[in-house]
Request: fold
Amino acid sequence: MKQLHPDVLSSLPADVAVPAYDRGKVGVGIVHLGIGAFHRAHQLEYTDDVLASGDTEWGVCGVDLLGPDVRNKLMPQELLYSLSQMSGDSKKHRIIGALRELMVGPEDPAALVERMCDPAIRIVSITVTEKGYCHDPASGDLNFEHPMIKADLANPDRPSSIVGYITAALGRRRDAGTPPFTVLSCDNLFQNGKIIRRVVLAFAKAVNPDLAAWIEENVAFPCTMVDRITPATTPTDIAEVQAGLGVADGWPIVCEPFKQWVIEDHFPLGRPAWETAGAEIVEEVDPYEYMKLRLLNGSHSALAYLGSLAGYETISRCMEDPAYVTFMRKLMDEDVTPTLQMPEGVDVGAYKDSLVERFVNPAIKHLTRQIAMDGSQKLPNRTLGPVRERLAAGAPVDHLALVVAAWMRYATGVDEQGIQFEVNDPLAAALRKVGDAAGNDAEKVARGYLAMPEIFGDDLAGAEPFTEKVIHWLKSLYAKGAAATVKEAYGA
Ligand code: CS2
Reply:
């Protein structure tokens, strides 16, 4: 079997779209930190369309901040890869050409800083997931105790975190008289542009207060809302895509057909005309972020914990249980929607219906265990914001409390059969400790976790009606398990 490569593009099946432009003529204008599946399913497709429209300045230098895996798979393919939209029985394959360079940060941090200083680089974009911001998820402040931040402060010219890289490169550009790039966060954090600005400024202040003042004055950090369900690639995906392409792709990406990108228009050095590829350019991203984080991601996390506990491996499997669907609907309708100010022109009912439909898609095998990762970083954005607003309004939080209880039950790292499993979370050690100390005592579990201010802030531990609800649900989760708890409360 041949390997995906520029030489085989002309022999691919006619229904496989290939880059409709001369890749050799594409200049690199964007450095992207975090070349995971999501970036390859989302921003790179939008940018590929812009390149095809004739604006060839915006090729991407992708950066893997973890290690060489992606580079090793994609280099032999000259950085081409396939993106396959799957829905029901339909499969639509496309070859993306917008990735023009690939660097591995830890192999040579100084070389990456240097690359970011090229005046042709006008945007540094980011997808590193919530934990990559090295911040305290409850307060949004930079965590100066974070091992990567400590290392970067000790050695600012050889950074390891995005905060260290961005600050080092901006400092070098300032010294060289090169205008600063725009920093474009594309992660699922509420006000992602403001968060990255805040952590970079805090870090820069610690390194060089003059630099911090210059960044504050000169650097743009627009906010974005990004959306496309993109599970981690599985061996089955690799085989299916190979059958569709007739060539082997070392690391194909599989995603749903839907995609959305809402961008605040603040790019002093210019940007690709992503709107020609379907992005929405707006003044104010907040309402879109609230809508997406609280309805889509909030429901995702809810199903991820209750699903994992019940042994449902994927989101689409959860959606085969009618009680889980009713729970998701009630969570969205009764507890979350009243906290939203919907973006103008968006019909909340239609949006929620579309989420249910997207989650049902059986062609997307999105593992509940994958979404359950990093709950300590995800919950504050997705679930605890609505909890606070509902409590302040004196409104019920029953369904939200079940989400928090399910996360706690999961965070103990002991499943419903009493077997230990690994909780993948930056706070895993602390979570395990609380869980071990509490045993199966629902009240101790609830109060133990609520007393972690880095997740729950200083306020939620004292919110007694909320705590009572969480304890109520936890008792049921321990006594009956997740599937029976959901069935009893939400079944027909
Ligand atoms: C998911 C997201 O893994 C998760 O936490 O909720 O990756 C989700 O699939 C995307 O945000 C969809 O745009």
In short: The mean pLDDT is 97. DSSP finds 21 helices and eleven strands in the chain. The first helix runs from residue 37 to 41.
